[in-house]
Amino acid sequence: MPRAAPEQESGADDRAGRLGTVPADDADRRGAHGADTSGTRADLRFAVLGPVRAWRDGEPLPSGSPQQRALLAALLLREGRTATAAELIDAIWGEEPPSQALAALRTYASRLRKILPPDVLVSESGGYAIRGAPDALDLNVAQELAAEAEKARAGGDRAQAVALINKALGLWDGEPLASVPGPYAETQRARLEEWRLQLVETRLDLDLECGRHAEAVSELTALTAAHPLRERLRELLMLALYRSGRQAEALAVYADTRRLLADELGVDPRPELARLQQRILQADSELAQPVEQPAPAKAAVARPAQLPASVPDFTGRAAFVRELGDLLATAEGSVMAVSALAGIGGVGKTTLAVHVAHQARPRFPDGQLYVDLMGAGSRAAEPETVLGSFLRALGTPDDQVPETLEERAALYRSTLAGRRVLVLLDNARDAAQVRPLLPGTEGCAALVTSRVRMLDLAGAHLVDLDVMSPDEALQLFTRIVGAERVRAEREAALDVVAACGFLPLAIRIAASRLAARRTWTVSVLAAKLADERRRLDELRAGDLAVKATFELGYGQLEPAQARAFRLLGLADGPDISVAAAAAVLDLPPEETEDLLESLVDTSLLESAAPGRYRFHDLVRLYARVCAERDEQPPAEREAARSRLLDFYLATVARVYAIERPGDRLVDHLEPTTYEGLAFTDRHEAQDWLYREANCVLACVRQATACATPGSHLRRAVDLLWAAKDLTESGANSKQYESAAVAACEAARAAGDARAEGRARTTLSNVHLVAGRYDEADREARVARDLAVAAGDPAPVYWADNDRGIIAIMQGRYEDAEEHLVRATDGSREVGNLPSVATALCNLSRVHLLTGRSSSAIDLARQGIEIYDRLGLTMRLANGRYALGVALSHAERHTEALEEFAEALRIFTRNRQRLWEGATHFRIAEARFRSRQPARAAQHAEQALALGCIGGDQMRGNILVLLGKALRVLGQTDRARACLREALALYERVGAPEADDVRALLAPSAAA
Length: 1007
Fold this sequence. Notes:
By secondary structure, the protein is mainly alpha-helical. It has 47 helices and 14 strands. The longest helix is centred in the N-terminal third of the chain and has 27 residues, at 183-209.
């Protein structure tokens, strides 16, 4: 870890007088009059990492003239050592001091002594010294933070090291010793600036070790522009680009560096840089993963310990335990070990896998990962979602988790490389779901459980798990119920386990019920199981074997519990909140929570988190069977689903309304009879929407899957429409698109033009955000025609607005203006002022692109005025974005950057990641036009890292801008790499901008 070199002095090094040395006794703490000054010193602070300043009790002290500040700086940087008058005169004035330099020096010292506490500035041996507490000087604090960071890095805690270095760098406040004259100050400025750059390089190195490649590229691009001859920065940039999948750009950086060094200094790149180029050319796999830490670092690396608790009464399966344990033991030093356990539901696959995994923990010291893949249900876990969870558990920050399945799988394997981690993949659907989740490196192992035999999982050791033997089944029953009760009725106990089909889950549930009821005998339980109405013939086959066991538990429920069990099972979604469950049951939340907790006690429901509950997938299926069979009248099942749909629609409508005051969309939604939640502020509402996103979209899919023309279908479509923020955020885009497609198909099949028009409006927005403009235009055109035919005004002006945006992106400016004028008029007709503002801001873009800059600015300001008047905070960001674009094109860059900064702040606060990226792109444009290519490149890199509204075409636009900025900076090879990538994207989507890029890549353009 770089550390600022101490100022070297000639003569004796009086360590007892160093700044920060603790006084030895009370006498040393007393001033000239014997007063204790330790307290006053503790409240004194000095700064040299910026302007030379001093504070006492938080109040700034006057530092005097530049020469007086030079004296103060010279004394502070000697860390308490005495400086002679001659040394100080030389430091302040150099080789040509004034004739009265000594008198002036004494005057400055006298003035400093007056403003400082007693005995801080002392005179001794014909010179001066400053004595104080170690942390009184910002430089000392920075050095101590750097030392702590070095220790943290050596101990393997990279995140802590980064935090400490950032804290040290945060102490800089501009140029060190700013405006301080004299040769000494000039030398120290250079020294401190060099140390700052070393700290920055170390922190960036740590960023790359932590996998923050995209973020590092942005900063390194700016730094290499500011310090073009600093080869370490170029080396880090090459590595960051390579790890970001941008190999061509990484090699281009080397070519640019080699040419620059030859032109400027007549030298070749240093050997480290040349070796890195060769490793990139050879696609060295070790470059794609963080540098391994030394052995001591193992203590601080994130070690997930996600295994569920092993049951204390685990019974039998000794042969399987040995077989699996032996296989896991082979993982160390060899290829990855994979074991796949298969069997019917309830046969004990998970229990056995968890037990074996706990026994094998010492062989996997770097952690154990666990996930329930929900393969037995209708909504199996998506591998990309699971990978995101695993990466976070392994220490990857949220903002560094990639978007696509392939990127997540690659980063997952890289993160596990060199580590010994056990992965337990429970309840898998099939081999395709499992493959992306396998570690793929030696030293790691995976245990997989599934209902199907994974014959197509290459290299897996397959284990078929059958039911227990009679002896094992009786042992399990005895351990749960108690030996005394079983000994008294052994024959009845054997009857019980036989009736359970020797299925472990069935035995466990039956035994648990008996254990909880001390008044029952084993014979009573056996008699109940003997009744075929409660124990079906299917007990010994597939899932029905579990059904009979659940029947036993269900039969013991009170009527209110049984009703809750049945109706809650009707809801799709990964889990359910108390408030949503209250809607399903049509009960107060408090009573609902009591019922849910009682079901948790019976093991028929799980507590997923405080206030949230979930079914095991098999139990959910059984609950639905019970609802079909027992819920009377049958219409209550449909009523429960309707109440849940009402709850989500009413609540999402309130979220929409609180985020968009004055927007009339909520007035056009289907009416609801069940009230939703009320929110006190915008952020609370937004938090709810993102927390419930999966459940909301599951409700839409469920409602559209079984919908018939009428209220259910229309409410589901409206729920999707009102939750449109879920697609623009980028967080739930795929799930939202799936729901939108399902809604369109259901509405078309039902012949409901109104619902289909609205559903197509949502799908048009999905395509627009993704940059699929032809598809978006087609959906918007059909949506408008259907809405006009149905007399439904809201989708009409929405479609007009979307088609206007699409036409802008496709360069059809006359069409765009026509659509947007219609959208403005249509919104005004129905009194929807926020939509008027949106259309005006989009129309501003048309005016801008057709040479009407002045009117473009006026239109954007009209939109902002409406947003401001209505208090529309989030939409205000879109208005400021539009105004910023107009001002930028009018060459009013300072004003434009102010608008973009405010838009970025709002987008960030509202978690609109794709709009954040788009705003960084516009900032980059403004910086480039104002001849700031380095800052333009930095913001373009941030836009690439975040992603943007507009898909591949927008990414191409960013790459073109980045290429232009890099070319101005002299990084021509990297610039060409960016332009080539942009050309490939433009050609893929058929964008006309491809011709412009070809021109930029032509030899004449490069010259």
